[in-house]
Amino acid sequence: MARDRNRLRDFQEALAMRLRQAAELPQRQSRLAVQVGDRGFLLNLDDVSEVSPVGSVTPVPLTQPWFLGVTNVRGTLYAVTDFALWLGLHLTSDIAAKRLILLGQRLGKVRAGLIVTRVVGLRLLDEMRAGETPLTRAWESAAWVDRDGTSWTEVDLERLASDAEFLQVVR
């Protein structure tokens, strides 16, 4: 019995020490890497509420070609933008890989979804170096290059959601 208590105490002390060590480590910032056309973008996970396959989208008449319409996700309507079309980028024909990125609650009342060509996965910023690509749009917050030499543009989704051009869906 005493032996079991000692083992439990040793386990608790070791766990407490590991937790203290983990708290002292710098936080690693990760981003959701997506491909849009032939370009790579990084999205802050705090600004993304969901990633899902593209479901049915109801078209809205007299809107821009890049504004695909609205979709209902669990009773909430989201405005859906084809991000590649909005950016004027080359499209891929791989429809099965396309995903709908829903903007998160942190962005306030904006209920928008972006269709991206492909979700690549998570990327750690501390494993990248600053890129030299000039940032040309207000919602581009940083340029990065990963270990493989792939360029990524970090997107400030809050700025994107308030961009006048992005909000101008009517023709």
Main attributes?
37% strand, 171 residues, 4 helices, 6-stranded mixed sheet, alpha+beta, 5-stranded mixed sheet, single chain
Describe this structure in words.
- With 171 residues, the protein is α+β, with helices and mostly antiparallel strands.
- It has a single domain (29-167), classed as CheA-289, Domain 4 (OB fold (Dihydrolipoamide Acetyltransferase, E2P), Beta Barrel).
- It has helices at 2-24, 83-87, 157-161, 164-167, and strands at 30-36, 39-44, 48-53, 67-73, 76-82, 99-103, 112-116, 118-124, 129-130, 140-145, 151-155.
- The strands form two sheets. It has a six-stranded mixed β-sheet with strand order 8-1-2-11-10-9. It has a five-stranded mixed β-sheet with strand order 3-6-7-5-4.
- The radius of gyration is 21 Å and the shape is elongated.
- The mean pLDDT is 88.
CATH class: Mainly Beta
**CATH homolog superfamily:** CheA-289, Domain 4
Radius of gyration from the alpha-carbon trace, in angstroms: 21 Å
Named CATH architecture: Beta Barrel
Kindly state the mean pLDDT as a whole number? 88
